[in-house]
Automatic annotation (TrEMBL):
PROSITE patterns: HD. Transmembrane segments: none annotated. This is HD domain-containing protein. Residues 23-121 form the HD domain. It comes from Viridibacillus arenosi FSL R5-213. It holds the Pfam family HD. InterPro entries: HD/PDEase_dom, HD_domain. Gene3D superfamilies: 1.10.3210.50.
Length: 209
């Protein structure tokens, strides 16, 4: 069995325990995004990118307090310790962390991060935001709540902000944080769709029918 297929079998059940914002379908979409970017980045190691995509959320701090899943699966794959460390570093650089992100220093890290962030914006990103908010019991919107900037990782993770606030704290910022040319290109339309959605949402809330 190929290593990527082996990894896929090992992670699928983990993701299917998460809510719809981070389930197996999320991984499938991120993989699709990554493969689209890989076509324009021939120097990238495809296998490293695919393994990092499959593993990037198995130990997500929103769902678990440990790196046990990530470490266990990496150790069971037939890859060198050096490649395991490369994948760990890629995964660590994916998280936004309230703007406290680590630098994506390799083309593989840039591809995985862009691919994941593309799934956080556009129509799917809107759906995922409200799916996560619903799973966590968050308000749809809160007009008294101001979007936070210059947050610590702890503030970003721990405060239960309304779903619409999340657009202003993160999602609307992602277009300008894309690192690959293909990622930047793909992000433009998705960003514009979110802007239109938020405008329409405000019109409906304000009774401007």
């Amino acid at each position: 069995m190929k290593i990527v297929e082996q990894c896929e079998q090992m992670v699928k059940d983990i993701y299917n325990q998460f809510d719809a914002s981070h389930d197996w379908q999320h991984i499938e979409r991120v993989m699709q995004n990554a493969k689209a970017i890989l076509q324009t980045e021939p120097s990238a190691d495809t296998k490293i990118v695919e393994l990092a995509v499959l593993l990037h959320d198995v130990s997500d701090s929103k769902y678990t307090d440990s790196k046990e899943n990530e470490q266990r699966i990496l150790q069971q794959l037939n890859i060198s310790e050096k490649k395991q460390q490369i994948i760990r570093e890629i995964i660590a650089s994916v998280s936004y962390n309230g703007g406290n992100q680590l630098e994506a220093t390799s083309i593989e890290a840039q591809i995985v991060r862009d691919a994941d962030r593309l799934d956080a914006i556009g129509a799917v990103g809107i759906a995922r935001t409200f799916a996560f908010g619903g799973a966590k019991g968050r308000k749809l919107y809160d007009d008294q709540e101001e979007a936070r900037h210059n947050m610590s990782v702890e503030d970003y993770r721990n405060k239960q902000t309304a779903s619409v606030t999340h657009f202003y704290e993160k999602l609307l910022l992602l277009k300008d944080l894309m690192t690959t040319e293909k990622g930047k290109q793909m992000a433009k339309e998705r960003h514009e769709f979110m802007v239109c959605f938020l405008k329409q949402l405000k019109n409906e809330r304000d009774g401007e029918l």
